[in-house]
């Protein structure tokens, strides 16, 4: 794994606050990235699959030895299937196999999501491998929440629109803006979440009090309610998201924005993987419960 992960300042308020126009390229990289071990627990991951970082002595040893061996030590196998890697003898004795085509997609667990047989690790693997301090923070919050349900409400980037040549606004997810508004959420989740339940909400919606109307039926909770636990351990919004993701997974009922598997509960029926077809947003519908 790479020893550092890129953090786009656009998504990281702390990164924006500490930016400097006089910084060197090394300083800029340090400011716009974070140590991978601040996100993931390599030792915990290694219980399933051995993990080393690209700044470790082990990695330099493997890289140096494999380069000296040439074709007998290293192979670049972009586009080669996992099945072929497993069954083809020419790969069995290599020290280093570079399978990832892009350095930005190291975390991809399966290139073809429709071919489940190609998945070596479940999609739940990485989220559960958060660093110890992030797991401990999430555990403290879950203990305070007690018996709770949770929803992840993806708005922001997913509801953006653009105008076509006739000036008509269009979006890739035509029902999402409607489906993720509190009045529609209340009706959608009524059959899954009983009144009076504690409902943890994780969302990228930036409007203050946007979900407040849900409080007439549920006891609402947000990560911001637990800043005394979270603030001392996070340095960027990626770490915050990882804590929220652990909390979401710990809920009695977890309702996602989009359905990813047949058994998932979701706020919207729009497909997560859009078809690149820009459509007119739909806002009508019966939101009475």
TrEMBL record:
Which organism does this sequence originate in? Pisum sativum (Garden pea)
Write down any Gene Ontology CC term.
Golgi apparatus
Protein name in UniProt? O-fucosyltransferase family protein
């Amino acid at each position: 794994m790479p020893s550092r992960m890129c953090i786009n300042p656009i998504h990281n308020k702390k990164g924006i606050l500490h930016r400097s126009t006089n910084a060197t390229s090394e300083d800029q990289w340090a400011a716009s990235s974070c140590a991978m071990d601040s996100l993931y627990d390599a030792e915990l991951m290694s219980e399933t699959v051995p993990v080393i970082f690209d700044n470790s002595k082990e990695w330099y040893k493997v890289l140096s030895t494999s380069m000296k061996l040439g074709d007998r030590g290293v192979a670049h196998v972009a586009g080669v299937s996992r099945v072929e890697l497993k069954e083809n003898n020419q790969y069995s004795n290599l020290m280093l196999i570079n399978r990832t085509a892009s350095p930005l997609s190291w975390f991809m667990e399966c290139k073809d999501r429709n071919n489940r047989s190609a998945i070596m690790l479940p999609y739940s693997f990485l989220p559960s491998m958060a660093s110890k301090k992030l797991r401990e923070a999430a555990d403290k919050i879950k203990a305070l929440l007690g018996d709770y349900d949770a929803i992840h409400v993806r708005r922001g980037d997913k509801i953006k629109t653009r105008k076509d040549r006739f000036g008509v606004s269009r979006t890739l997810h035509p029902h999402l803006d409607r489906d993720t508004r509190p009045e529609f959420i209340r009706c959608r989740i009524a059959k899954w979440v009983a009144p009076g339940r504690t409902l943890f909400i994780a969302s990228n919606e930036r409007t203050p009090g946007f979900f407040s109307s849900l409080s007439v039926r549920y006891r609402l909770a947000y990560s911001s309610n637990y800043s005394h636990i979270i603030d001392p351990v996070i340095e960027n919004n990626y770490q915050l998201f990882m804590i929220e993701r652990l909390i979401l997974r710990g809920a009695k009922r977890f309702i996602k924005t989009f359905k990813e598997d047949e058994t998932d509960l979701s706020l919207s029926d729009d497909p997560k993987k859009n078809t690149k077809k820009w459509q007119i947003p739909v806002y009508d519908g019966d939101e009475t419960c």
